[in-house]
Design goal:
Blueprint lengths: L7 E5 L3 H13 L3 E5 L2 H10 L4 E4 L8 H10 L6 E5 L4 H10 L3 E4 L4 H15 L6 E4 L2 E4 L4 E4 L2 E2 L4 H11 L8 H8 L10 H13 L5 E5 L3 E5 L2
Parallel strand pairs: 1-2, 1-3, 3-4, 4-5
Antiparallel strand pairs: 6-7, 7-8, 8-9, 10-11
Helix pairs in contact: 2-3, 6-8
């Protein structure tokens, strides 16, 4: 089974080699990743795109990461923000948390710890501290990227996981096709006009008749129907 596309993440990091390495690691875990090399670019895309999580370096070449954080929170961006930095001064950590950061991870770190922090922040932002979600016969273990309907384990591809994850976050609510597209594809990825429909159809087939229904709300989008 391929890694699950848990989230669309904005990675703000000015070191090109480190940014490539982190992006590759996050993509290998199934995430969709966009990168920004400076604070102004980070602000521009974060204010315009619906990211599920932002990782933010403090030592940026134009404006500081703390200033980026301050402006994002001032402008009403509530996206979880994970600070990744080599600065170990307690003052920086306190200031970052006071400005609205959700977590703080010191470099160097292991990819597994970064991934665990991301999973925890995503669960918290969705109001669910548990990594296991149950809807009827569907049981989704987010921590171990496992989904099953009854005794039938689902072999979900990366984009199918992405669609399921977004619908799970809003069970019983309509999610528009445009929103699904913007949340599961990066801005540098070519997206065909029927891409979302294709992945929804594939997910429906794998959920089967005994899984929860993905209902099409004509002209509006899709809704995962719970009990």
């Amino acid at each position: 089974m391929e890694g699950r596309a848990v989230a669309r993440i904005l990675l703000v990091e000015d070191d090109p080699s480190l940014a490539r390495g982190l992006a590759a690691s996050l993509k290998a875990a199934g995430h969709t990743v966009d990168t920004a090399e400076d604070g102004e670019t980070a602000l521009m895309v974060a204010l315009d795109e619906p990211y599920a999580l932002i990782t933010l370096d403090l030592g940026l070449p134009d404006i500081s990461g703390l200033e980026v954080l301050r402006r994002l929170r001032r402008d009403g961006i509530k996206t979880p923000i994970l600070i990744l930095t080599a600065r170990d001064a307690i003052e920086d950590r306190v200031e970052g948390l006071d400005l609205g950061a959700d977590d703080y991870l010191l470099k160097p770190f292991e990819p597994s710890e970064l991934e665990a922090r991301i999973r925890a922040l995503l669960r918290r932002s969705q109001g669910d501290a548990s990594p296991v979600i149950t809807i009827g016969l569907l049981v989704v273990d987010q921590a171990h990227a496992r989904a099953a309907v009854g005794d039938r384990v689902l072999d979900l591809r990366r984009r199918e996981w992405a669609v399921l994850d977004r619908l799970l976050a809003r069970v019983g609510k309509v999610v528009s096709k445009d929103r699904l597209s913007s949340e599961i594809f990066g801005f540098d990825e070519p997206v065909g006009p029927n891409a979302v429909e294709v992945y929804v159809a594939r997910l429906r087939r794998k959920l089967g008749d005994d899984g929860p229904e993905i209902r099409t709300i004509r002209g509006l989008g899709y809704m995962l129907v719970g009990d």
